[in-house]
Each structure stands twice: as C-alpha cells, then as structure tokens.
Amino acid sequence: MNQEPIRVGIAGLGRSGWSIHAGLLSTLEEQYRVTAVVDADEGRRQEAVERFDCMAYTDYDELLNDPGVELVVVALPSHLHASASIAALEKGKHVVCEKPMATSLEDADRMIQAAADTGRVLTIFQQRRYQPEFIKVREILSSGLLGRIVQIRVAASGFSRRWDWQTLQKFGGGSLNNTGPHFLDQALQLYGPDYPDTIFCHLDRTLTLGDADDFVKIVFKGPNAPVVDIEISSCDAYPPETWHIQGTLGGLTGTPRELRWRWVVPEEMPPRELDTRPTPDRSYNRDQLTWHEETWTPPVDTRTAFQGFYRDLYATIREGKPLAITPESVRRVMWLQEECHRLCPLPQEIE
User: Fold this and answer.
1) 6-125 maps to CATH 3.40.50.150
2) Other Cβ atoms closer than 10 A to 278
3) Which fold does the domain 129-275+287-301+333-343 belong to in CATH?
4) pLDDT, position 301
5) Cβ-Cβ contacts under 8 Å for 28 (sequence gap 6 or more)
6) Which stretches of the chain drop beneath a pLDDT of 70?
7) What's the alpha-carbon Rg for the chain, to the nearest Å?
8) Which of 93, 193, 314, 327 has its CA 20 to 30 A from that of 249?
9) SS3 state of residue 308
10) What is the layout of strands, in order, in the sheet containing 250-255?
C-alpha cells in the first residue's frame, strides 16, 4: 500500500486556496505535500514557493501537465470550477473542488460524469460537515431525544456590505452561491436522503455593490421530513443564532460556539385527556412539565476539525476507503440552488 504523501497542486491562492487549503495541508505533512501552485499574482506565487518549496505556474495547463501533481485543489473563481475540475480529471488527477461545486446543475452533472469516466476521485469541499457543532446537532436529532423534528431553521446573517468579485453574477457570485452551499448542505444532510418537493425562495439585493443576491430566504418541505427554513442576510441588524430546531419532545438552539437543548420525557408528563367542557375560571390549559436541559461547547477548534476532510480523502486515495463527501451528495445542493435561481431570477447582470 502506497503511504507516501499525496502530491498536491493548488489552483488559486486567494482566501480559499491559501488561507484554508494551504493552511490545512501544511498541518498534515505526513499525508500531503504541496508540490505546485498556479496563480496570476507574482507575489502570491513567491509566497507559496517560500512556504512550500514548490513549483509555481502562471498557466493552469502547466500545473495539469506537471507529473508530480496527483491531486488538484480547484480554488479558482466559482464560474471556473466545473471546467477546471473536468480538465484536471481528464489529465488523470484527483480533484478537490471548492464550493460551489459549479454554477449550474448541468455542469455539476458533467463533473460527476467526468469522474466516472476517468476513474479519478472528485470531491467537493463541503467541510462544514466536519464542523463540531453540526456533528453534535446531527447526533442529538438522530438520538430521537427531541421527538419528531418539525422544523429546522438555519441562519447566517449580519449587516455588512461587499464589493468584491463574489458580488457579481458573471463570476457566479451572490450569497446563495457562495455562502449558501455551506448551509444548504448541512440542512439537506439533516433533512434526509430525498429531494424536497415544495420549495419557496426569495432572493434580493440589499447592500451589495454588485448585481448578485445578498439576501436569501429558502423554505422547503417533503413527505415525512421536517420543514427547513434557511436565511442568509446581509441586512440583518439583529442576527439570530445559527440553529433553531423544533421537535415534538423539545428543541435546540445555539451557534458554532455553544448549543443548548431541552426536552421532556413522555412518561414524566401528567396524564391528560381531551376535555371540551368549560375550563375553570375561563383559563387556558396549563401544563406542568419537567424539563431536562444540556449545553455543549466544541472540544476542538474549527481548523482542527476541518483536517478530517483531508484525512478522510487520504484514506480514500491511498487506502481505497469509500469517499466521505461524494459529488452525488453535493448534487442536491446544486439542484436546490438552481431551483432557487429559477423560482426567483435576479435582474440582468452587470456587463
């Protein structure tokens, strides 16, 4: 079994390629070695050479033709994800593609087909599946402690302006495409394996200086599944907590830094029967319930948790273990994003 470090080429040294991927890979030296990078900015290339003693290219094809690169991390602007991933797969490289997987469902399907045709590994960097508080939320919901889950509400809101390339439609920008994949993916993982059959979406431009959306409201539902409510807003002066979950035996609320949940035990609830007679003193029914409550804080920081993505990928490439985050599982995110764009098209993009 080949247990040598996987040789990585990073395409794009911006916020994601440098601050996230290069940072994570540098902490996993036994599993990965950055051997090449490509970026148009000379300063960024030089910084990578000094840090990793790697090859630095100005042209993406040069990186793909480097025989020392086994795995390509596609951290280019969103509208290039599909074409860059497919080109790497066709050159025999494994691929980690940043989110969003693509800017259309058709392109996502082309990526999946290219991975199948070439026999290479394609995975999407939906790293928030490894986020400690998400794992804890999933654990609590799966335990049945909160009963049947009626609604899952997820919020990622604040009050701020943006004016970079991610605010432009022509680059695949907007909050739905850029912030949305994190929370749509988490919500769909909790929702269940099926595709929802009822979707409401509203997209709006509020504070962004570009032409893409910066307010996203999505509500979806399906048979035997909870209602899911997702809000991503740039104009929320009083942002709510990330999680608010309602169940028939209790609920959960909180943020990545702290979760709180409370529940009742059916056997401890006073026996009641439906009674249509007038209530004493015209009062409402009042239940005397015994609540059980717990709180949780993450045992590790987020950066350490996200190492799990690359550890699992190493096990897939070097040891033949099943891929943890399959492109097919991320396809549902792409499908939901495309449905939202169809239901609520934005005005024509800026040229």
Assistant:
1) no
2) 8
3) Dihydrodipicolinate Reductase; domain 2 (3.30.360)
4) 81
5) 307, 310, 311, 314
6) 348-351
7) 23
8) 193
9) helix
10) 198-204, 215-221, 227-233, 149-155, 243-247, 250-255, 258-263, 292-296
